[in-house]
Write a structure and sequence with these properties.
The chain has 6 helices and 5 strands, in the order βαβααβαβαβα. Strands 2-1-3-4-5 form a 5-stranded parallel beta sheet, with helices on both faces. Helices cover about 40% and strands about 15% of the residues. The protein binds flavin mononucleotide. The site of flavin mononucleotide has 16 residues, from helix 1.
């Protein structure tokens, strides 16, 4: 059994004041409490062009796509907080998933960044559903590329009123639920590796 699972935590938002970035940071605390080694990734730090197969054929993977793929490969599990745009995931998140899904040689096994990884999902939105509909989609996408997605997930509605000044959720029970999600990811990832 793996003693210290490496967990990559990120949100599918590029927005500086993102609620989903705040949310995933709460889950990170739970993951650390459970003994995980957690890396936080802000997708803004790895800007990527919109995926275009012609550009890929001509130039290969851009430097940042390679870095992203390496980050995915070098972690056992993902904590992902997904915003909801028009009832689905953001273009930025889908674009990142697509870039990191690409093989760079004939010898490279397909979907190395994803196969066998474990993921816990959460979402936050100012709306009443808390981004729940995006989670249905990202669960299907990740499942189809070989990621074990935990059945547990947590959504935070009315996100613009949900956090206090320190970035914690005002609702203590929700705060606990999110931290527990991080803990659970570490426990399951440990068992699966
Ligand atoms: C293009 C666009 C579409 C959106 N569609 C939805 C939606 O379908 N459901 C929803 O709950 N919120 C929707 N929102 C509002 C987002 O939930 C809100 O901007 C949220 O703060 C984004 O997450 P972030 O704070 O992590 O950046 C949309 C926002 C944008 C910009």
């Amino acid at each position: 059994m793996l003693e210290t699972p490496r967990i990559l935590a990120f949100a599918g938002s590029l927005r500086a004041g993102s609620f989903n970035k705040q949310l995933v940071k709460i889950a990170m605390e739970g993951a650390r409490d459970a003994g995980g080694e957690v890396t936080y990734l802000d997708l803004r730090d790895l800007p990527l062009p919109v995926f275009n197969e012609d550009d890929e054929a001509q130039h290969g993977l851009p430097e940042n796509a390679r870095k992203l793929k390496e980050l995915f490969k070098s972690h056992h599990g993902f904590l992902l907080s997904s915003p909801e745009y028009n009832s689905s995931i953001t273009g930025a998140l889908k674009n990142a998933i697509d870039w990191a899904s690409r093989s760079e040689s004939e010898e490279e096994p397909s979907l190395v960044a994803y196969r066998g990884k474990v993921c816990a999902l959460m979402s936050a939105s100012p709306g009443a559903l808390g981004g729940l509909r995006a989670l249905v989609h990202v669960r299907a996408i990740l499942g189809n590329i070989g990621v074990f997605v935990l059945p547990e997930q947590v959504s935070v509605p009315v996100a613009h009123e949900a956090f206090d000044d320190k970035g914690s959720l005002k609702d203590a029970r929700k705060q606990q639920d999110i931290a527990n999600l991080g803990r659970r990811l570490v426990e399951i990832t440990r068992k699966l590796n």
